[in-house]
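subagent[fold] <- orchestrator: predict structure for attached chain, return tokens only, no commentary.
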Amino acid sequence: MSVSPAAVGPSEPVATPNPASDPAPHSTPNSASHSSPNSASHSSPTQAELLDFVRRTAADAELIASLPLDPEGRTWVRLEGPGGSEAWLIGWPPGTGTGWHDHADSVGAFVTAAGELKEHSLAVRLPADGWKTLELADDVDRSRRLPAGKGRSFGRHHVHEVLNESTDLHAISVHAYYPPLPQMRRFSRSGPILRLEQVERPEDWQ
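subagent[fold] -> orchestrator:
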């Protein structure tokens, strides 16, 4: 399969599909539910509004302190996001991360509330389907450190992994997505080769 121009934005590097074997399963963190005091009634929130929401929520010390933390794996609670968005409060034990994944057609934002996270992302839009492995073009990797109080928003089809690289400290973050995530594709990576491992649906993490 070749990548058509429609599959990649005009200024974005091209990812080249390769043949591969069937996807493999991927584990998910522990979860719980919670209602956020920062909910808002607004339709179709923008990236800027989602970023404002996660910043305000991350500054809610009582809410952040209420998150149960597990030394063995990530924990999360569901929040009420603005305008019908999907929002989460997530705890990250030392040395844990998400692995590479995308967010389908949803836009989003996240902010570190405690500790520090690191984000690795790809400056490329991946084809929607019809592939199992891709060879990434040169110079598509981006990285940023996000200490407490720092965050970012992102557009549709954003591909990244988020890590807590600390050896001894938990991190906590707040995330929001609109529309609510219809699915997440999870990937593994070896050098320039990105491999589709699993497609998760909302029932897998709620």
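orchestrator: received. Logging for downstream: The CA atoms of residues 27 and 204 lie 10 Å apart. Residues 1-14, 18-29, 31-42 have pLDDT under 50 and may be disordered.
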